[in-house]
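Recap from last week: sequence in, structure out.
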Amino acid sequence: MMFDYKYYREFSINIFEYADILDFLLTPVKNLEVIGFVAASAFAVFIFYRFDKLWGRKWPKSYKFFNLGISGDRMQRVRPVLMAILSVAYLSIASDFYSERKFNDFQESTEKIEIVYEGGGLIVSGKLIGKNSDYVFLQTSDKAIKAIPVASDVQEIVIKRP
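Predicted structure tokens:
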């Protein structure tokens, strides 16, 4: 959710208004970068955990100094709070990096798509920002941001005009 939110925020789109929970749950399946991030993060946590245990056993003095003198039972009570704070900070920094990279890729892209409406023959073209199960998000040539419903009588929703 955080990754999508920060990316769409670059376009002044509040993705929570246009997405349902299934869109957020399926993001890792649809995006290989997110799968790689999750796998690399899990592996890094495992390595840090093993290193922490090894360090505490092999070099207890430096381990105790690094942990500000907190050891044993007291550290077991503090560790969950520290892990929660670090996890939120890590996800925030990672999602900022991801959204910035994805936004730069969008800006450098010259690829345009066309959406042709079934009934009236109306055609909307622009650069694809993203899509979910209900909407396609486009930036048109006049820099307007549009949310186009996939299955609806509504033809388009203009989110932002330049």
